[in-house]
């Protein structure tokens, strides 16, 4: 059975868990990282020298990097709808997955670390405000892209929706002012209809 190593509060672990639910794939998960530690133990570093989560072990095949894991699992289980073989459709999905990891994720992470991981008296409002601004800019771009589309890569749900979908939950969960982004809101509500999103992502952050 697929082993997933990583705490379920990690956005990168959640990507893999959500996908497993989409694929109806059984797995065994182990709590590693964050308060559970063990990610810097020699046994773990031998599997993933970055000391980060997630890492998966698929019957002896060890893989890390959440997006590589998602692509591997989608391809292995023939999830053509989630990650099509057609090169251009696939490239479009890959592009938005990368955008989630390199633009939306880094924009919202400082705010997440402040609001969720820092005791209130130590929080820095300037860091939160800057992160809020950057995230609003990223999501404004996404809102324009989503005009006339149900999901990021078109009319159906794909891997493109997963990385930024996880950040969208955080954005709507934080007690902040948000610009009116109707297409992002409608997309976020559509994601909320999915069992994997509700189970693995839509959980209280503190
Ligand atoms: N690029 C990596 C990033 C992995 C990463 O940064 N994981 C974080 C959690 S989201 C981590 O392991 N942090 C240390 C910890 O949880 O102890 C991926 O996508 O898998």
UniProtKB/TrEMBL annotation:
Residue intervals of the GST N-terminal domain: 1-81
SUPFAM superfamilies for this protein: GST C-terminal domain-like, Thioredoxin-like
Record keywords, A-Z: Transferase
All copies of domain GST C-terminal, residue ranges: 86-206
GO molecular function, one term: transferase activity
Coiled coil residues, start to end: none
CDD domains: GST_N_2
Pfam families given in the database record: GST_C, GST_N_2
Protein family membership: Belongs to the GST superfamily.
Protein's name according to its UniProt entry: Glutathione S-transferase
UniProt source species: Stella humosa
